[in-house]
């Protein structure tokens, strides 16, 4: 009996070791092959700094927009009753089936050189494709479901009793939300923001397509890594990949705390 | 009396309710439905014959077939190893179990492009392991289908584990115990009693990982490169066509990919609803 247990455990540990741990070790090893100073130097290249700055800006904008509208959508999908609600609910998984490259392509169709909306954006003098707005739009598309999917179960578990009590006591809709509903949602809200941010940091395909990858101008961290790899600037590519991977990992570890608190608050109800 | 209370607790400002709903639905329409409509309209705009002629070119056909078969191989391995991992994590106690459980989620935390870079460092021809595999076994990973499968295995590892695990935790063990009392060997208990109970979760997790694999780009483009008729998948094909300005080809291939991924996800949806009806 016991040998079977240890055999199965070793198979799983071995598989995960080869599949997941070995590549993680390889990137640390690959980046530090020429020593820590080389990594630091590679990371101080203006293109690297600029690309990480751009990723941060996109991440902040996307997180704020999804933070507001994602909460609104979760609220409407849980608290309102309307025709077609079930359909909307199922459509929420759509970005999951959509390749990031296709998302980027739809933006090219809309805003690219022969884009459908090109006359409009030109008249307004808006630069969307091959510029920051397009990259933000691309990231917004691929990160849409996270916020909504995190908030919906908590809103459902929270129920309406306390909200109704607040309303009976004369609180306005906004007051009820701000003082009663939101405090209950707060951990799930933070977790949703974190997940959205993590996904935004790592977005590549959609942003690559719509940004055009203009060196030092429309490159996000991932697009920079891809280009550096193509140009055989391995030190830059590996160091930036290591940094981006580390940031994502730390972020996910931190928001896991929010996730646990949120789960606990659901269980307590 | 009852109607009166309902009226009183309902929001007093219907316009506020309507504007919130309107804003939420507009936001969803723009960010959820718009890309789908654009792909479908743009793809079908050129006519069905145009799509067929694009997709039946040798390069496009190869890309579709490569995407499907590497996805299927990945799903199969993922189903077996994901099931095994979930089983070990739920049924056995051993030192380091919490850590192992945490490692399962790592692939979701790492950007897929970074995954690609990792695999290139590990298995690239200049790397120790990659060079050894290539010279001793004649097995090439990078710029080859095995690299695609490896990248997909990495990025989709959590799907099956995380869909089977909760079902296994909540599984009532009395049937297994009954089978054991009746003298059934362990593998038979697993095969006849445990597995059937896990099957729906296993199938949906596997299908989800397949749907996801159809569109995977970041990890694959680095690991497999963009070599037509050899290691170019459908997503990389679309990227290449956009770059070279042939939107018609990109849009036809996008439609095919979307049809496969959405078809797979509808299957998952249908299976889970059928289960709900039965239960």
TrEMBL record, chain A:
A cellular component term, taken from the record's GO annotations: plasma membrane
GO function terms (MF aspect): ABC-type sulfate transporter activity
Subcellular location: Membrane
SUPFAM superfamilies, A to Z: MetI-like
Key word Oxidoreductase present: no
Domain of life per record: Bacteria
Annotated ranges, domain ABC transmembrane type-1: 52-259
Stored InterPro entries: MetI-like, MetI-like_sf, Sulph_transpt2
Pfam assignment, any one: BPD_transp_1
Reported function: Part of the ABC transporter complex CysAWTP (TC 3.A.1.6.1) involved in sulfate/thiosulfate import. Probably responsible for the translocation of the substrate across the membrane.
Subunit-level organization: The complex is composed of two ATP-binding proteins (CysA), two transmembrane proteins (CysT and CysW) and a solute-binding protein (CysP).
Name listed for the protein in its UniProt record: Sulfate ABC transporter, inner membrane subunit
Organism: Herpetosiphon aurantiacus (strain ATCC 23779 / DSM 785 / 114-95)
From TrEMBL, chain B:
Ranges for domain ABC transmembrane type-1: 64-268
Family annotation (InterPro entries): CysT_permease, MetI-like, MetI-like_sf, Sulph_transpt2
Keywords of the record: Membrane, Sulfate transport, Transmembrane, Transmembrane helix, Transport
Membrane topology term: Multi-pass membrane protein
Keyword hit for Transit peptide: no
A Gene Ontology molecular function term of the record: ABC-type sulfate transporter activity
Stored Pfam families: BPD_transp_1 (PF00528)
Compartments, record wording: Membrane
Membrane-spanning residues: 24-52, 64-88, 108-125, 137-161, 189-210, 252-271
Any one of the GO CC terms: plasma membrane
Family: Belongs to the binding-protein-dependent transport system permease family. CysTW subfamily.
Assembly and binders: The complex is composed of two ATP-binding proteins (CysA), two transmembrane proteins (CysT and CysW) and a solute-binding protein (CysP).
PANTHER family reported for this sequence: SULFATE TRANSPORT SYSTEM PERMEASE PROTEIN (PTHR30406), SULFATE TRANSPORT SYSTEM PERMEASE PROTEIN CYSW (PTHR30406:SF1)
Function: Part of the ABC transporter complex CysAWTP (TC 3.A.1.6.1) involved in sulfate/thiosulfate import. Probably responsible for the translocation of the substrate across the membrane.
Annotated protein name in UniProt: Sulfate transport system permease protein CysT
Lineage: Bacteria, Bacillati, Chloroflexota, Chloroflexia, Herpetosiphonales
């Amino acid at each position: 009996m016991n040998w079977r247990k240890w055999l199965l455990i070793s198979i799983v540990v071995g598989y995960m070791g080869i599949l997941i741990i070995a590549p993680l070790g390889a990137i640390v090893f690959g980046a530090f092959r020429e020593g820590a100073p080389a990594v630091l130097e590679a990371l101080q290249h203006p293109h690297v700094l600029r690309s990480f700055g751009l990723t941060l800006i996109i991440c902040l904008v996307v997180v704020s927009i999804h933070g507001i509208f994602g909460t609104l959508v979760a609220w409407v999908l849980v608290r309102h009753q309307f025709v077609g609600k079930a359909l909307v609910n199922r459509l929420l998984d759509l970005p999951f089936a959509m390749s990031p490259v296709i998302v980027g392509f739809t933006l090219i169709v809309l805003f690219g050189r022969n884009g459908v909306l090109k006359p409009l954006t030109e008249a307004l003098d808006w630069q969307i494709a091959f510029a920051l707005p397009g990259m933000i739009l691309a990231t917004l598309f691929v990160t849409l479901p996270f916020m909504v999917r995190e908030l919906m179960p908590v809103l459902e578990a929270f129920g309406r009793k306390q909200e109704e009590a607040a309303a009976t006591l004369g609180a306005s809709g906004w007051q009820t939300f701000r003082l009663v509903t939101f405090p209950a949602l707060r951990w799930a809200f933070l977790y949703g923001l974190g997940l959205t941010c993590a996904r935004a940091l790592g977005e590549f395909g959609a942003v690559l397509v719509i940004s055009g990858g203009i060196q030092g101008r429309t490159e996000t961290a991932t697009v920079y890594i891809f280009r550096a790899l193509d140009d055989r600037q391995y030190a830059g590519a590996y160091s930036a990949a290591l940094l981006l991977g580390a940031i994502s990992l730390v972020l996910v570890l931190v928001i896991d705390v929010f996730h646990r608190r949120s789960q606990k608050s659901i269980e307590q109800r | 009396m009852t109607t009166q209370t309902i009226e009183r607790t309902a929001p007093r400002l219907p316009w506020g309710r309507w504007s919130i709903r309107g804003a939420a639905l507009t936001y969803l329409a723009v960010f959820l439905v718009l890309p789908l409509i654009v792909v479908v309209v743009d793809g079908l705009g050129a006519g069905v014959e145009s799509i067929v002629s694009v997709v039946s070119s040798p390069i496009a056909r190869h890309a579709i077939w490569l995407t499907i078969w590497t996805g299927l191989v990945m799903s199969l391995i993922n189903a077996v190893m994901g099931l095994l991992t979930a089983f070990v994590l739920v049924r056995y106690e051993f030192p380091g179990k919490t850590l192992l459980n945490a490692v399962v989620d790592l692939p979701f935390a790492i950007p897929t492009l970074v995954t690609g870079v990792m695999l290139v460092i590990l298995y690239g021809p200049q790397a120790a392991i990659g060079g050894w595999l290539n010279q001793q076994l004649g097995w090439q990973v990078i710029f080859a289908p095995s690299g695609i499968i490896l990248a997909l295995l990495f990025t989709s590892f959590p799907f099956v584990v995380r869909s089977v695990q909760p079902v296994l935790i909540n599984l009532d063990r009395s049937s297994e115990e009954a089978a054991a009392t009746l003298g059934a060997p362990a593998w038979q208990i697993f095969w006849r009693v445990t597995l059937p109970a896990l099957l729906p979760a296993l199938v949906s997790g596997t299908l989800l990982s397949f749907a996801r694999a159809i569109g995977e780009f970041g990890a694959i483009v680095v690991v497999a490169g963009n070599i037509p008729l050899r290691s170019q998948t459908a997503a990389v094909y679309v990227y290449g066509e956009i770059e070279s300005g042939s939107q018609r080809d990109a849009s036809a291939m996008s439609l095919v990919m979307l049809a496969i991924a959405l078809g797979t996800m509808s299957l998952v949806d249908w299976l889970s609803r059928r289960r709900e009806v039965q239960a």
